[in-house]
Amino acid sequence: MTIPIDGPCSEPRRRIALMSGLNGLIRRRTKIVVVGLAVLGVTPAPAFAADHACDGVKVEATKARKQEYAHLVVSAMDSKFKPAQAKFITIMESGNWSAAYVSTPVSDDGVMFFQTVNGKKQFRDVWGGYAEPSEKPELVSWAKKLGAPQDLAKCFAETVTE
Predict the structure, then answer these.
(1) How would you write the chain as a 3-class SS string?
(2) Mean pLDDT of the residues in the chain
């Protein structure tokens, strides 16, 4: 859009021309941002990584699984609390190994590892704390040293560094 910018009212015309062009640009950029955010809103970025890292691992925290693991968590801890007080972030299973990312009223959040032996889940170890994404290889190595399979170790490392 070209508006002559001379004469006694040149300043208001210049502002109108600039505002008109700027509004069009803002609208186009806004549409791009809104579409991008809508796509991200459908699938959050951490989900991309966790889904990929957890391929082959059963990752569900159903009501039945939460109840089963709540009793395992209570029995593995020195300080006792009601199983209903255990809050699960996620539960991961691969083969005869599992890991429950849990919050309890008597401890910091942690990932408790269990191994099924003769049909019964046995507590093996717990990981707690905070980890940076750069620490994933160390976390995978730690879980594998426990005996956890590679896919569960990778899923655990990705989950705690999201």
Answers:
(1) CCCCCCCCCHHHHHHHHHHHHHHHHHHHHHHHHHHHHHHHHHCCHHHHHHHHHCCCCEECCCHHHHHHHHHHHHHHCCCCCCHHHCEEEEEEEECCEEEEEEEECCEEEEEEEEEEECCEEEEEEEEECCCCHHHHHHHHHHHHHHCCCHHHHHHHHHHHCC
(2) 79
